[in-house]
Write a structure and sequence with these properties.
Elements (H helix, E strand, L loop, with lengths): L3 E6 L1 H4 L10 H17 L4 E6 L2 H11 L8 H27 L4 E3 L2 H4 E4 L2 E5 L2 H8 L3 E5 L1 E5 L3 E5 L1 H12 L3 E6 L4 E2 L8 E2 L1 E2 L4 H4 L15 H14 L4 E6 L5 H6 L6 E3 L2
Length: 265
């Protein structure tokens, strides 16, 4: 797999994060069409798609997640409610992909990950790898998982990419959200950072705070820190943070263009 990329649709891109349980169905259809077009133009492109939970998982978690680790039956009911909402959004993503004639299969993290203290200890990847080899698009997403230490926890798409990249070694990770890239002065949005490396990150970190709408898995700074850990481990990897809101940007990024903010070693 000489051309392996991970692509994430941010929760803010595919849902309205200010309104609980509100998908952006037209945007999902457009994004799926862009993936289909890129795959037609570049048959050698191997792709893993991930997506955030947006106003589905985050809204459910803010209402139902246990306040401590002493879980009772009601807490587990809340865990199941968060799973239900996250999986409901995943189904909408899968509908959009199949409507665009993209062969895709979902791999729910809740069913495949063994986790301890929020760290993925084991992930049975053979089915996902077989899907890639068969030309099928594997889809993962931010989800609840059982945790040997914490009972249950929530893994973001970045958490999943972090683990997956160490085993599959993609050449590029593409993070498509609403923002044009990483801002040095969010939410003022007057200074877009073009390049971030482990060396210059400290000069921008103070402005990378918060997230638009609800978010229980961290804002932009957390995401950048996670991706920088990856590029430090893999010198050949580049991460692109860009706007999926602009028409054709996902298509362009999949075909190799560098948009928004580039992270590298």
């Amino acid at each position: 797999m000489t051309k392996l990329a991970f692509l994430k649709f941010g929760g803010s891109l595919i849902t309205d994060k200010t309104r609980p349980y509100t998908p952006r169905l037209d945007k999902l259809a457009e994004l799926a069409a862009q993936i289909a077009a890129a795959r037609r133009l570049d048959p050698d492109l191997y792709l893993v798609l991930g997506h955030g939970s947006g106003s589905f998982g985050h809204a459910a978690a803010s209402q139902n997640w246990p306040a401590n680790n002493k879980w009772d039956a009601e807490d587990w009911r809340g865990f199941a409610k968060v799973w239900y909402r996250a999986s409901a959004l995943n189904r909408l993503v899968m509908d959009a992909l199949h409507n665009a004639d993209v062969p895709a299969i979902s791999f729910p993290p809740s069913a495949t990950n063994q986790v301890k203290n929020r760290v993925i200890e084991d992930w049975y990847l053979t089915p996902l790898q077989n899907a890639l080899k068969a030309g099928i698009l594997p889809v993962i997403y931010g989800d609840v998982v059982f945790d040997a230490t914490l009972n249950g926890t929530i893994l973001s798409t970045e958490d999943l990419f972090l683990s997956l990249a160490r085993q599959l070694h993609p050449q590029r990770i593409l993070l498509a959200g609403l923002e044009e890239g990483v801002w040095a002065d969010f939410p003022a949005r007057t200074k877009l950072v073009n390049v971030i490396t482990p060396e210059n990150f400290g000069s921008f970190a103070g402005g990378m705070v918060g997230a638009a709408g609800m978010d229980v898995t961290g804002g932009m700074r957390d995401k950048v820190e996670q991706m920088l850990r990856l590029v430090e481990q893999d010198p050949g990897l580049e991460v692109i943070v860009f706007s999926g809101e602009k028409t054709e940007n996902v298509h362009r990024a999949l075909l190799g263009e560098s948009l928004g903010t580039r992270l590298h070693r």
